[in-house]
Amino acid sequence: MMANLLQWIRSIVFQIVLYTSMPVIGLIYLPWALVSRRGAYGAVHGFCRFARWAARVIVGLRSEIRGTPPQGAVMIAAKHQSFFDIIMIVSVTPHPRFIMKQELLRTPIVGWYSRQIGCIPVDRGKRGRAIAKLMEAVTEGRAEAGQLVIYPQGTRTAPGANLPYKIGTGLIYEELGQPCVPAGTNVGLFWPRGGVFRKPGLAVVEFLPQMPAGLPRDVFMARLQETVEACSNRLMAEAGYTAPAHPGS
Fold first, then answer.
1. Does domain 62-238 have CATH number 3.40.50.1370?
2. What are the tens digits of pLDDT across the range 35-73?
3. For the chain, which residues make up each domain, given as ranges?
4. Which regions of 9-73 does DSSP assign to beta strands (E)?
């Protein structure tokens, strides 16, 4: 009981430290970020690396990157369980940018820096128009070197949840004509998609072998889902989690 209370206190302290550091780091890097995208990336990387350090020190949540973080122009298709998998991916990729909810651009600091590093906003509520606008934005930004991070399920997914992989991932893969690096994770076991409580443990993001450009869309989507889900389930099992059986499985 006392240990659980202490972990709650640590979790609250961590949240305060995390969200206080965001504007502080943003303001420190602002003069550089105003004149150079390198400055914007400096702020983003600085925040994410600080967040990983603070999670380990304050709440006992260690983090580990497995596999080889991509450095060139690729698409990263990753399992998304919480804000922490974003933090971990950004901390080790040189030029990440995201397909993100349009309303996030109105968030102070986060929205401005997202624009500076070339994130692509979409309105997920207007499905047909969102896909068209997304493809247009991806085409316009295709020449930019970097790692386009997408979440094939379109949202944060709780451990054990069985959400479909959205076809937009395959469309983007075809449009970009770039290799794809799948990534699995177990971070949702320790840092859930909602709430404040953070559990101690080892959060892992694993970059998997690169998938070549040019695969047929259906082949790509099937292989991507199988690869990412198998990796994530393995990482969660390694942390002591047993996924529930789904009907028909």
1. no
2. 999 999 999 999 999 999 999 999 999 999 999 999 999
3. 62-238
4. 61-66
Most distant CA atoms of the chain, gap in Å: 56
The two structure tokens encoding residue 204 = 């892992």
Q: Residues of 57-83 as b/e, b for ≥16 C-beta within 10 angstroms? A: ebbbbebebebebbeebbbbbbbbbbe
CA–CA separation, 227 and 218 (whole Å):
14
Q: Are 191 and 203 in contact (CB under 8 A)?
A: yes
pTM over 0.70: yes
Side by side, the strands of the sheet bearing 61-66 are 61-66, 201-207, 180-185, 74-78, 147-150, 96-101, 120-122
Q: Which two tokens stand for residue 80?
A: 């998304």
CA distance 178 to 160: 30
Q: Which amino acid is at 232?
A: S
